């Protein structure tokens, strides 16, 4: 039988897959079950506690749990619970009971908490969490149900760090929020406890179920002053709010009322109709909030709001009104989808001042449409204003539009704005902002507003603005990136500005600004600033503003011809108010300057140091300090000057009460200023400032004249002496004035009188003036006479009006009368003043002047046949002659840096007169021009119809430079001179009076180089010149010169001449390069040269002199001279002695270092090294002295302050005194010890014999204070010795007149002229030129007599002599010349005679 095989059917493959999938799912479920069950065990709960402790949220919060008891899926107790943030624990609870059903959320999206209980929770402080961006997709009302059966926290302890006080609260409540219903109860209270006030109560009942037509709303808040709510919100007043109503879902009516303290907070009616809610009523936010919120909602805010709720969406319509603000809006807010649906808002600012006190505006409106997701909506806005202003600034015709977009990190606001103009700014910025356009973007991120691409455009500017605003920290800053070319600022000038700035990220995630700025001045209209800087300036700096609120300035540099800031930096922190500044500068006028500042803006400390600011008084070593003090600012300053020390101590009172100024001490030039000023309610200051010291006394009384400042000044001078290098002495004077400084113009009424005012060689015998001026109209007058180089006497007066000035003047200068032919008239048209043609008349001719001043300056002068001797009114002794005719035209348009000048002058028969000769007349024609292209000067000299000289100098083109003088001195020089004629013409150009050079001279030279570094190529020759000095009688004849110009120097090959019977010769080089300091090297040899030959002085000199000058070694005169013979006659005039005051200089001059040359100038002071020897034959005569001297002296020091060492020794001589002849002792000498040359040491004596007594005169001490004593053999008192010398008899036998004369003589010897001097007093009172007492003359029959003499004219002298016995004689002397006189004498006792006297020294 055969076997049959059977095969089982195959199982489908999917069954195997399904099997294993089921096994896998079952395994995962089993594993999940085991995990869930395992977590609910003790080890699982510990594992969960550990995992929770290690978890940290994105905001930085962590939860710490000690342990968990109970079931994780039911009722459990959390023990030792602690909440931590970035700074540690901020809340703790010993026990929290949670009874919940977590699996309910998995089944029905429901949070089911049956109980949440705790006996005590402690809030230690407010949490410090990291900022976390919200999830833009998370709905505000999520689609979940919440059921909280019971919440009960018995004690919530709120520690003082939270609100500043301890609070203890209790909380109980429940909640059930599900689809279609909302039930909630809340009862929260603060409890009274030790240190805790309690009393706050918050209750809430809500039951809303539309399906059941149920709606219940009931809420109340009671918050007493000092409670939890008040402490947290810092209200400072109790607060109560109540919400209550009646009805159901279909129709519910309620009210919302509230009070803050005694003031109403809200009174609003509420309605609900099937999901449509309305709110109408008034709210008063100003009850709680001050500032802009209060002002914008005052006196109350009327609200009208309607919202239809459904499907977690609200369809809104709202309106709000106050006196300052109106807002309307409508649109959709979807809380489920987190979206805006075309929410439109329109607002009008009715009272712009409500934003801030200094804000004003007109027709200010804003509208916006918001659409899109809450997190990233788009906002289309439109802002417009007819005018809106801040302070004095106003933006007119403003319109701004844009469409802002918002994302999770920032809000981007495109800006497209226009403004007709921005007014109220200073002149610097106002002109830039006309027709302004702004385009760019603003970005809001992390609470900051930023922009780096706001482009600003107007008719004057094209730049990009950078803005960085942090409202939370109160930081507002910005910068400009761009260029402003050639912009004019009124009162300053024209500038060019370039800035470059950028936003930079900071290390803390914020942003800052960094940039550079460069300012270049093109021209400066402000004269003070222009003089200080010396011309145009370039300023550069780096600036920054970092994320910490610190503004900084570094690398500050300013470069100008006369002023340089070599380094500067500073910072200001907005949060702390700290400031720091450090700057260093160098000024040619004021020297080095350093400024430092520290402290805060409220209490700054500023220090300034200036080594040599000068200010015209040689002020040095100035230190000033400004320090903030509780009452204001204390200012101290000290320094030294040529007028004595400067010391100031001031207090500026500021902050408490009215502003004031207390001048505790202010001393300068020996004058003390003190007083106190206080600002009045009207604004001006009131108080008295007193002036005392240096012979000045007075006061300045300040007071209010309405809203204007009034000043009454009354100062008197009596024998006043203002110290200084050249002291100012005022014999007597008064100044009285009253001024009112009104906004419409000042009003001044005053007068002054001055007598005997002296400064150096300048003197005002008398001066008086007055002014009466009121708001642009008034009169001024001045009368003065004195001497300033030449005598003058002037009278001036003027009538002033806002658009017209009429002035007249007349007087005399050095004996030359001058006057205006008619009053000069200046009129104003717009900004320009015009001087109508005015004629100045002098005996030598006329000058016609006219011109304009204002936006452009122009001056025209016309000379018609003017005698050039008029120059001697200002430079006496030149001896000029000739007639000048010509024109001078000067004009400088506004903005021009180089004036246009054209001068044409023709001088006919020009001469120069010396003591005995008059130069041959020549005709001179001059033409000079100056303009932007350069300058040129041409001269032509004619003599006898032939041309003897030509000169041409060109400066073309002008060089670059900050000032006109710099451009001229740096310009290329070309041209030349050809002259073959009288030397007097060329010598006149030196301006030296009392000296002449005459004779023919030939000069031929070509100019080159620059004006400050000129080069000359050519020759100068002469062989018959004559030099004459009228003062000393010096004559050098047959003067021959042979020299050649080689680039920058004159090589003097030969200079020879005859000086009396002797001769002199010289050779060397003279530098012509100012930049090199005029280097020179000259050597001269004198061979018995007679250098002085006058009636009073004659001298013959032999020896050598070397004159050198260089920048390195300075200027030096060195020599070795021998004086074979010299004669000097002492001539003492009867005029009062006036000490010579030295040191006169201009305010802007800097002190000259001894022996140094000014930079690029002729040496101002020469060093001396000269030896002078004379073995004998130094003859001195006059004043009764006939003596011969010998000397060996060395002269050092400088030309302005020579220092002499050595002696003058008596060889032989006699001295006549009181008709007696004294023989000089040969051991007498005058010793020079290196001090002032006028004050040597004296050691002289002379003796004679009278009436058997040998009398000796001893002269000791110093020349400025000699000590004269009389001794005798035998020894007698000084009055007895003097009596015998004067009258030949003992003092006991003197007549009363002789006794007076003796007393005067003794007093003069003892007291330097002080004390009783009756003869001197009588002579001064009577005006007699000479008054003396004569001894008896028996041959003439005259006893002791009185002689009085008077000069009838410069050449006629009359003297009358009389005694007590009736003797009378008259003497008459007529001087025919310096040497020849006629003498006549007539006496009462008979006898008359006439004689001829010739007297001359040989």
UniProtKB/TrEMBL annotation:
<dbReference type="InterPro" id="IPR007452">
    <property type="entry name" value="TamB_C"/>
</dbReference>
<feature type="domain" description="Translocation and assembly module TamB C-terminal">
    <location>
        <begin position="1055"/>
        <end position="1402"/>
    </location>
</feature>
<dbReference type="GO" id="GO:0009306">
    <property type="term" value="P:protein secretion"/>
</dbReference>
<keyword id="KW-1133">Transmembrane helix</keyword>
<dbReference type="GO" id="GO:0005886">
    <property type="term" value="C:plasma membrane"/>
</dbReference>
<dbReference type="GO" id="GO:0097347">
    <property type="term" value="C:TAM protein secretion complex"/>
</dbReference>
<dbReference type="Pfam" id="PF04357">
    <property type="entry name" value="TamB"/>
</dbReference>
<protein>
    <submittedName>
        <fullName>Translocation/assembly module TamB</fullName>
    </submittedName>
</protein>
<keyword id="KW-0812">Transmembrane</keyword>
<keyword id="KW-0472">Membrane</keyword>
């Amino acid at each position: 039988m055969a076997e049959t095989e059977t095969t089982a059917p195959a199982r489908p493959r999917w069954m195997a897959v399904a099997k294993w999938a089921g096994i896998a799912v079952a395994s995962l479920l089993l594993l999940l079950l085991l995990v869930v069950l395992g977590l609910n065990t003790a080890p699982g709960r510990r594992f969960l506690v550990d995992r929770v402790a290690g978890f940290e949220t994105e905001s930085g919060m962590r939860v710490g749990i000690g342990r968990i008891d109970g079931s994780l899926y039911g009722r459990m107790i959390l023990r030792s619970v602690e909440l931590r943030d970035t700074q540690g624990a901020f809340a703790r609870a010993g026990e929290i009971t949670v009874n919940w059903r977590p699996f309910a959320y998995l089944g029905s999206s429901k949070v089911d908490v049956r109980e949440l209980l705790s006996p005590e929770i402690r809030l230690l402080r407010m949490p410090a969490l990291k900022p976390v961006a919200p999830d833009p997709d998370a709905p505000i009302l999520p689609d979940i149900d919440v059921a909280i059966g019971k919440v009960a926290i018995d004690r919530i302890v709120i520690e003082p760090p939270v609100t500043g006080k301890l609070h203890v609260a209790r909380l109980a409540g429940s909640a059930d929020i599900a689809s279609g219903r909302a039930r909630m109860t809340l009862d929260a209270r603060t409890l009274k406890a030790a240190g805790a006030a309690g009393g706050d109560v918050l209750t809430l009942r809500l039951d809303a179920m539309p399906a059941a037509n149920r709606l219940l709303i009931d809420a109340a808040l009671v918050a007493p002053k000092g409670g939890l709510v008040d402490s947290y919100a810092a209200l400072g007043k109790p607060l109560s709010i109540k919400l209550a109503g009646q009805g159901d879902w279909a129709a519910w009516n309620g009210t919302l009322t509230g009070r803050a303290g005694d003031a109403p907070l809200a009174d609003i009616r509420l309605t609900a109709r099937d999901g449509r809610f309305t709110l109408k009523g008034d709210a008063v936010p100003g009850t709680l909030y001050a500032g802009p919120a209060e002002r914008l909602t005052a006196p109350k805010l009327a609200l009208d709001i309607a919202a239809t709720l459904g499907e977690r969406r609200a369809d809104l319509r709202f309106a709000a009104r106050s006196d300052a603000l109106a807002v309307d809006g409508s649109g959709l807010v979807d809380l489920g989808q987190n979206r805006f649906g075309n929410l439109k808002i329109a607002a009008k600012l009715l009272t712009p001042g409500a934003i801030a006190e200094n804000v004003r505006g007109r027709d200010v409106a804003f509208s916006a449409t918001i659409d899109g997701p809450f997190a990233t909506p788009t906002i289309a806005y439109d802002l417009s204003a007819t005018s809106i202003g801040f302070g004095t600034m106003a933006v007119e015709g403003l319109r701004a539009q844009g469409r802002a977009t918002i994302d999770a990190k920032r809000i981007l606001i495109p800006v497209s704005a226009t403004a007709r103009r921005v007014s109220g700014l200073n002149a610097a910025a106002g002109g830039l902002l006309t027709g302004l356009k702004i385009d760019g973007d603003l970005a809001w991120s992390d609470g900051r507003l930023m922009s780096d691409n706001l482009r600003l455009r107007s008719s004057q500017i094209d730049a990009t603005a950078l803005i960085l605003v942090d409202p939370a920290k109160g930081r507002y800053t910005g910068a400009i990136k761009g260029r402003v070319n050639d912009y004019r600022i009124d009162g300053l000038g024209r500038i060019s500005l370039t800035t470059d700035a950028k936003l930079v990220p900071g290390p803390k995630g914020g942003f800052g600004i960094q940039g550079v700025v460069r300012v270049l001045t093109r021209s400066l209209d402000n004269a003070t600033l222009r003089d200080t800087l010396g011309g145009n300036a370039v300023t550069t700096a780096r600036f920054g503003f970092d994320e910490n609120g610190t503004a900084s300035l570094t690398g500050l540099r300013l470069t100008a011809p006369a002023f340089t800031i070599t380094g500067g930096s500073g910072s200001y922190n907005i949060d702390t108010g700290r400031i720091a500044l450090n700057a260093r500068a160098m000024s040619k006028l004021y020297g080095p300057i350093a400024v430092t500042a520290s402290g805060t803006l409220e209490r700054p400390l500023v220090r300034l140091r200036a080594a040599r600011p000068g200010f015209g008084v040689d002020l040095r070593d100035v230190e000033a300090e400004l320090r903030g003090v509780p009452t204001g600012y204390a200012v101290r300053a000290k320094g030294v000057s040529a007028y004595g020390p400067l010391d100031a101590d001031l207090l500026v009172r500021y902050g408490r009460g009215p502003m004031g100024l207390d001048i505790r001490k202010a001393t300068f030039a020996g004058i003390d200023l003190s007083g106190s000023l206080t600002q009045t309610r009207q604004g001006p200051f009131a108080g008295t400032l007193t002036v005392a010291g240096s012979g000045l006394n007075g006061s300045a009384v300040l007071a209010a004249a309405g809203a204007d400042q009034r000043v009454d000044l009354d100062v008197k001078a009596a024998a006043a002496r203002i110290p200084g290098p050249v002291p100012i002495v005022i014999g007597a004077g008064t100044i009285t004035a009253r001024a009112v400084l009104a906004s419409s113009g000042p009003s001044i009424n005053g007068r002054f009188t001055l007598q005997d005012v002296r400064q150096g060689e300048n003197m005002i015998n008398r001066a008086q003036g007055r002014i009466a001026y009121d708001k642009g109209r008034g009169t001024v007058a001045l009368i003065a006479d004195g001497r300033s180089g030449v005598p003058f006497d002037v009278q001036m007066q003027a009538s002033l009006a806002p658009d017209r000035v009429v002035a007249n003047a007349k007087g005399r200068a050095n004996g030359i009368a001058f006057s205006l032919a008619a009053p000069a008239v200046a009129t104003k048209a717009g900004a320009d003043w015009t001087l109508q043609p005015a004629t100045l008349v002098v005996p030598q001719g006329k000058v016609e002047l006219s011109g304009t001043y204002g936006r452009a300056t122009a001056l025209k002068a016309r000379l018609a046949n003017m005698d050039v001797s008029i120059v001697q009114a200002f430079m006496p002794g030149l001896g000029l002659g000739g007639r000048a005719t010509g024109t001078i035209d000067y004009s400088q348009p506004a903005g021009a840096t180089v004036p246009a000048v054209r001068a044409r002058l023709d001088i006919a028969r020009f001469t120069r007169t010396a003591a005995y000769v008059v130069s041959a007349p020549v005709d001179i024609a001059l033409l000079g021009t100056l303009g932007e292209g350069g300058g040129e000067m041409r001269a032509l000299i004619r003599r006898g119809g032939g041309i003897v000289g030509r000169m041409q100098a060109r400066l073309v083109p002008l060089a670059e430079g900050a000032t006109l003088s710099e451009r001229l001195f740096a310009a290329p020089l070309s041209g030349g001179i050809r002259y073959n004629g009288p030397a007097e013409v060329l010598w006149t150009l030196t301006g030296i009076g009392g000296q002449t050079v005459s004779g023919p001279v030939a000069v031929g030279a070509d100019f080159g180089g620059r004006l400050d570094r000129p080069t000359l190529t050519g020759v100068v020759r002469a062989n018959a010149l004559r030099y004459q000095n009228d003062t000393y009688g010096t004559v050098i004849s047959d003067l021959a010169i042979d020299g050649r110009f080689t680039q920058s120097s004159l090589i003097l090959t030969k200079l020879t001449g005859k000086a009396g019977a002797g001769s002199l010769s010289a050779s060397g080089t003279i530098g012509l390069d100012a930049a090199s300091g005029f280097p020179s090297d000259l050597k001269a040899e004198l061979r018995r040269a007679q250098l002085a030959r006058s009636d009073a002085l004659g001298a013959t000199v032999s020896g050598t002199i070397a004159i050198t000058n260089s920048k390195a070694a300075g200027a030096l005169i060195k020599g070795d001279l021998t004086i074979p013979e010299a004669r000097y006659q002492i001539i003492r005039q009867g005029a009062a002695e006036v000490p010579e005051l030295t040191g006169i200089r201009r305010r802007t001059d800097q002190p000259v270092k001894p022996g140094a040359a000014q930079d690029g100038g002729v040496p101002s002071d020469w060093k001396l090294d000269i030896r002078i020897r004379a073995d004998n034959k130094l003859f001195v005569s006059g004043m009764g002295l006939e003596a011969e001297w010998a000397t060996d002296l060395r002269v050092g020091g400088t030309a302005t302050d020579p220092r002499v060492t050595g002696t003058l020794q008596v060889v032989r001589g006699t001295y006549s005194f009181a008709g007696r002849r004294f023989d000089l002792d040969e051991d007498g000498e005058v010793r020079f010890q290196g001090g002032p040359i006028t004050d040597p040491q004296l050691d002289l004596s002379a003796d004679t014999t009278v009436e058997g007594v040998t009398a000796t005169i001893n002269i000791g001490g110093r020349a400025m204070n000699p000590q004269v004593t009389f001794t005798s053999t035998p020894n007698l008192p000084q009055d007895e010795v003097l009596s015998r010398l004067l009258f030949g008899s003992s003092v006991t036998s003197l007549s009363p007149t002789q006794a007076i004369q003796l007393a005067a003589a003794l007093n003069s010897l003892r007291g330097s002229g002080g004390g009783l001097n009756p003869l001197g007093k009588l002579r001064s009172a009577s005006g007699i030129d000479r008054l003396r007492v004569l001894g008896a003359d028996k041959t003439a029959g005259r006893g002791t007599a009185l002689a009085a003499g008077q000069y009838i004219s410069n050449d006629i002298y009359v003297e009358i002599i009389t005694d007590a016995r009736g003797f009378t004689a008259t003497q008459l002397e007529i001087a025919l010349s310096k040497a020849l006189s006629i003498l006549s004498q007539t006496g009462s006792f008979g006898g008359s005679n006439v004689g001829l006297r010739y007297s001359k020294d040989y």
